[in-house]
Design a protein that fits this description.
Largest sheet: 4 strands, antiparallel
InterPro entries: AB_hydrolase_fold, CarbesteraseB, Neuroligin/BSAL
Number of strands: 9
Number of domains: 1
Order of helices and strands: HEEEEEEEHHEE
Radius of gyration: 21 Å
Keywords: Signal
Strand order of the largest sheet: 1-4-5-9
Oligomer: single chain
Protein name: Carboxylesterase type B domain-containing protein
Family: Belongs to the type-B carboxylesterase/lipase family.
């Protein structure tokens, strides 16, 4: 009897999880090259396979909008950032840099033990390399729009 209940719960949870995860099709690169004030970028085109109501989107990850490096190469800590250096090539912005994270406020051990499961999962996800230079922008743009992106 208990085994049947466990199997039923497992089956229901499996169905719920499989219904919430929508497969996406990420193509290699977008044909369109976007001209910014600092250089040209190319992103990635994303299609949602199960829901045809959702439009295709172009994603551009890690576009630098400022820099913590000064004119002489020194770090501008606690100072206004400078403009990012310009690039002459087409920058590949199709991959998200998930290995580096901006510094986050850490929960103390006592708060972590008293927190709910969502806070614990969020906190566990933030235990990775952190860097103060977080001056990058991620853009999610409808691929069918006729408006300027940047």
């Amino acid at each position: 009897m208990i085994l049947n209940i466990v199997m039923f719960i497992f089956l229901v949870l499996s169905c719920l999880i499989s219904c919430t995860i929508a497969p996406v099709n990420m193509q290699q690169h977008v044909e369109r090259v976007i001209e910014t004030t600092d250089g040209r970028i190319r992103g990635v085109l994303v299609e949602f396979l199960q829901d045809h109501k959702l439009k295709k989107i172009e994603i551009f990850f890690n576009i630098p909008y400022a820099s913590l490096k000064g004119v002489r190469g020194n770090v501008l800590r606690f100072m206004p950032p400078s403009s990012p250096s310009k690039w002459k090539y087409i920058k590949d912005t199709s991959k998200h840099n998930s290995s580096v994270q901006c510094p986050q406020k850490w929960l103390s051990e006592s708060k972590l033990m008293n927190s709910n499961i969502y806070e614990r999962v969020r906190e566990a996800g933030s235990i990775r390399k952190q860097d103060e230079e977080c001056l990058y922008l991620n853009l999610f743009v409808s691929s069918q729009g006729k408006y300027k992106i940047i």
